[in-house]
Amino acid sequence: MQIRAENDPRFWRKFLIMGVCALGFAVYCLYDGVIGYPANREDGYQKFKGHFPTLFADPKQAPATVVAFEQTANEEQRRKWDHYLEERDIPGHASVVTQFVMAAISGAVGLLLIAMPLRARGRWIEANDNGIRSSWGQAFRYDEVERVNKRSWRKKGIARVTYVANNRRGTFVVDDFKFERFSTDAILYQLEQKIDPGRIELGPPEPEPEGKIAEALEKARSGS
To answer: How many whole angstroms separate alpha carbon 122 and alpha carbon 10?
Structure first.
């Protein structure tokens, strides 16, 4: 009897949404760093010159741009400019840099989150009469199972199967959120029917299937 649980796109959809939101925030930060904040700073600088004309009595002390001013300001100009920035809530140079840092971080996070559901496309796990295998090449026989840890099964739908195959110990995660729920539950039930119940830890064996889990098993038996 062969039971296959395909990847459940509903589980990964939230990562895709979060990834798009993170990329959107990155674009927003990039806009502020490139356009919004510099324009705000430049406008604030021009008003600052109008409010403190005595600081710029010498034409050479009145650079055309805020960047040039900050690079050449004397101690008095710098002190009053810093106070003016804080008083008028005008972003300073550090704030502009921060926008680029946040854009880089949120952009990287967004790409990672979007990559997760894309990588998961086409993944599946499958159980037959001999054992379990997956689309990414992980496989083991039922007689190679050491234990089934069900600590997280009731709350999170996660069971961890420890096995020894080819003299190497491995862990296979049965997760009914990442894969089609009822088919995955049917796979766990079949697994537990094939092993010593004493190997099932931190949770009871699965009860006799009902509803859609039973339908998944019956579908597998009929080969449809």
So the answer is: 14
Nearest 5°: phi and psi at 86?
A: -70, -40
β 200-201/145-149 pair status: parallel
pLDDT value at residue 62: 79
| Phi, psi dihedral angles at 195 (to 5 degrees) | -120, 165
The residues, ordered by sequence, that sit 6+ positions from 179 with a Cβ below 8 Å of its Cβ are 5, 6, 7, 8, 123, 124, 125
State yes or no: pLDDT of 224 exceeds 60: no
Strand order in the sheet with 168-175: 168-175, 158-165, 145-149, 200-201
What are the tokens at 139? 């496989």
pLDDT single digits (tens) 82-127? 999 999 999 999 999 999 999 999 999 999 999 988 888 889 999 9
Q: What pTM does this model have? A: 0.70
CA distances to 3, 16, 54, 129, 140 from 134, rounded to whole Å, are: 12, 23, 76, 15, 10
> How far apart (Å, rounded) are the C-alpha atoms in residues 125 and 174?
8
